[in-house]
């Protein structure tokens, strides 16, 4: 028991050790390399912490966070709406796969941010182009992982379902969906990571709320402590979203 407890304690301590080393490196870069530079002082851990406390108490950053999370949810929902059926087609229909694989790989390799001018011209300024960019970034890992899940299904499962008289709908919900669930959750986790990377620059497309907008606002106000605190807050939220996706995958895989 004591050895298990010590292993558990070390596993909990290591992340904090890493964070502490990162904080120490940050402090050394500001106060050592930066020296007496005014710009370095503005981005110091002390100034950032003070600004973070004020943002937390003021609540403004939470309004922007909710706006960003709402766009993340919409983008992910759109990606699932298109990505899951496409993945099912790619994985189960060989002719469709061969006809579209080159096209999908070509589109997948285009940076979502390169579509920003086209999205604004086609959809205008506001929520629509932001959600489009997020959905475009998220759809490809969903398509690829769903199709991989279809390819990994044991054919004997489908043969057994046929022998029991299952129709197409029953095979879909009783065999296919449970079989691809783990792959889909992996795709969702990868999609969330891509969405979170694209979110901040996408929110610089004329919206008046969101973490990307708030980054520009703090820069324009020269509130450098708030700027750095918001950057760290974005990292924290992204970490929480990824942890939730990993936990969902772990729980499903453990069933």
From TrEMBL:
GO terms for biological process: alkanesulfonate transmembrane transport; cellular response to sulfur starvation. The chain crosses the membrane at residues 12-29, 72-91, 103-125, 131-154, 222-245. The lineage of its organism: Bacteria, Pseudomonadati, Pseudomonadota, Betaproteobacteria, Rhodocyclales. Keywords: Cell membrane, Membrane, Transmembrane, Transmembrane helix, Transport. It is found in: Cell membrane. It holds the Pfam family BPD_transp_1. It is a multi-pass membrane protein. InterPro entries: MetI-like, MetI-like_sf. One of its GO terms (cellular component) is plasma membrane. Its main location: membrane. This is NitT/TauT family transport system permease protein. The keyword Ribosomal protein does not apply. The keyword Cell membrane applies. Residues 65-245 form the ABC transmembrane type-1 domain. Belongs to the binding-protein-dependent transport system permease family.
